[in-house]
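> call design_seq(struct)
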């Protein structure tokens, strides 16, 4: 993936086990597990999910892990298009406020194009997304000021290590006048069918 913003670092990390094992995301709430005194040290961020179920499940799992005095305080929220307009507006306004209490949003695609917030310091893509353009939009949600050091972390399923692009490269070389490469700006798509799975 191309990096055109000098203040954004791009990183990858393998997910251990299935996506439903939300312990993979424990690292983003470590300083909220013990005491409420640490909330002002927690940097604001967004975790993108490809399903509403994953966003809700992770939010509930993490909220139950917080220090007792932080339960129900709204530090961890969900944000997706099927929610009531009043909820989305209130959540956006608080997350947009530098002094707001919301610290972590578990979101779906709606947030990648609907949030313009300056002080988002990190974004996690939980699981390989279906589209590269979607990935770029989500990565662009952090480091908006162009100065603050920020990070976009792509957490990928273990099966991604088994992908072999050589067959697709060979097929493309037969039909494309431009020699295919592993250039991230020109990804190899292979054969795509109507009901293809993300892994395929």
């Amino acid at each position: 993936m191309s990096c055109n913003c000098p203040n954004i670092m791009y990183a990858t990390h393998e997910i251990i086990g299935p996506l439903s094992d939300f312990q993979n995301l424990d690292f983003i709430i470590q300083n909220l597990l013990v005491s409420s005194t640490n909330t002002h040290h927690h940097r604001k961020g967004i975790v993108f999910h490809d399903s509403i179920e994953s966003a809700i499940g992770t939010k509930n799992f993490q909220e139950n892990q917080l220090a007792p005095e932080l339960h129900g305080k709204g530090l961890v929220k969900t944000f997706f298009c099927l929610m009531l307009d009043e909820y989305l507006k209130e959540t956006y306004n608080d997350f947009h406020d530098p002094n707001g209490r919301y610290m972590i949003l578990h979101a779906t695609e709606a947030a990648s194009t609907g949030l313009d917030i300056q002080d988002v310091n990190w974004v996690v893509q939980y699981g390989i997304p279906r589209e590269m353009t979607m990935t770029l939009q989500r990565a662009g949600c952090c480091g908006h000021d162009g100065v603050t050091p920020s990070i976009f972390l792509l957490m990928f399923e273990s099966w991604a290590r088994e992908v072999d692009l050589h067959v697709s490269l060979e097929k493309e070389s037969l039909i494309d006048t431009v020699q295919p490469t592993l250039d991230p700006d020109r990804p190899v798509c292979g054969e795509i069918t109507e009901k293809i799975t993300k892994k395929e």
